[in-house]
Amino acid sequence: MSGQRSAFFRTGADWAARHRAAATTLVLALFPLIFPFHTLAINILLFGLFAAGYNLTFGYTGKLSFGHAAFFGGGAYGCGILIANYDVHWALAIAGGILLGGLIALVIGLLATRTRGIYFAMITLALAQCVYFVFFHAASLTGGDNGLRGVNVVRVELGPLQINLLNPLAKYYFMLGLVGVAVWALARILRSPFGAVLEAVRENEGRARACGVNIEATRLLSLVISGMVCALAGALNAINLSTVAIDSLSYQTSGLAMMLTLLGGMGTFFGPFVGSAVFLGIEHIVTGYTERWQLIVGIVFIVLVLFFPKGIWGTILQRYAK
Amino acid sequence: MNGAAILSTQGLSKTFGGFVANRNVSVDFPRGKLTAIIGPNGAGKSTFFNMISGGLKPSSGEILFEGNSVVGVMQHHFAKIGISKSFQITNLFRDLTVLENVRVAVQAIHCRFDLWSPRNRHHEWVDKAEELLRLVGLQARLRDRADRLAHGEQRSLEIAVALASDPKLLLLDEPTAGMSPEETRTIMDLIVKLLEHRTIGLVEHKMKLVMGVSDNIIVLHHGELLAQGTPDEIRSNDEVRRVYLGKARH
User: Fold this and answer.
1) Parallel/antiparallel/unpaired status of strands A148-149 and B5-16
2) Which of A188, B48, B99, B150 is the most exposed place for a label (fewest CB within 10 A)?
3) What is the pLDDT of residues A199-221, one digit of tens each?
4) ipTM value of the model?
């Protein structure tokens, strides 16, 4: 009986390992059915995507970035400005946000990908702060300190299908549709020859270079893709909240992406979503009891990192995958 | 210049600050032959090797590969123009499988940025990798992770990775370093076998090892060229004898 069950489990795990995007989307689709806080579920979904985009740089390319807020916030403002100030269709606005995030990643990448280790972290941090101040001072376009208001998308029409975004559950599934596409694209890229090059560069830069790999171009392309995924998360978050706060560009936002990724498991496909669910879940519970929620969340974070050194999902994979 | 040389250096020098690692080295690597670079510790072999394999830019002098200068060419282009190297210290993708180590090296030569097709759809890369691994005798270890291999096997894998780009000139930096006598014999047999289709240059510390198999020997001493010639010429060269045998008496 238990043998049958473990065989069933193993078949399921094998399927999930081979179809990571489908498995991830399936779990995310079932998530709100067992998790009653739908507004929180949307946050978990979007910050999970943000962390998944960050993970491409941090986990798969092996570069520690402190500047991904620039891509997330760039996507949020790009999309938000188009909707709030120019009344552009939501789909075009999201595409515009992704484009702006990718462009910011390209510029930051051109300046930063030649540097190593801590220098890469410092340069991405400094350049992301520059982006912060540009958006902060362009108040006529971005609302400056007050944030951007009026990013209103109430109803989405997809052919005969009408989605009412005022209903949190409907909004969750609308967002999941786009997150699913991004997750699928990420899985495809990681499985492609380019994904193999990323692994090789992360494993051994010198050897990869001797094999004929252009390390700088590889890292730049990876950062741009990572930036576009984070920008999509930002754009969806702008629509989700109907506003864009200047905080979305702050270094705390970059730090959040890193924490979610570490917590879930860097370099694992599903880890960022696990990290997002655990972190935002704990935050949600603790803020109900005390204003000093960061203290509690910090302690929980330290405990989790101590007991799950490879992240929650990373440790589970390590223990049960073999 | 020797017309039969695939690679030749002219007045090659490298200084690090005030330290002269190589001075005015002019040598030829004859096409289709095995050239060994030997010399005592600190003779400047590694610096010279790194310059001709693209890792270091010379301070002055010229490196001609098939008649064209390769000074200042980016390291990652070397594999594409036909020069490939192995490292002195084993330098592999340790967490990847043996097969993937070679497959990704084959791929690196054949495509630049393919982000979309599944990597295993390219059977030709896998086939080529398996063929190279058969050649170096690792066909039974394809699915093992590279860091699970014994030291000698890792050195063989290193050579397979270097062969992935189908180099015209294969440069090996102390391929037998740290090996047992049997492993050394296996690698030397492999090197002789590889010579059928390519030119090989190798750095070696042990003079005895290369005397039997080399066609051409370059002796470096204190960063300068001491002698170049056939094993017989080198063996009977008084200065070489003085440098090597003189040391041995201590």
Assistant:
1) unpaired
2) B150
3) 999 999 999 999 999 999 999 99
4) 0.86
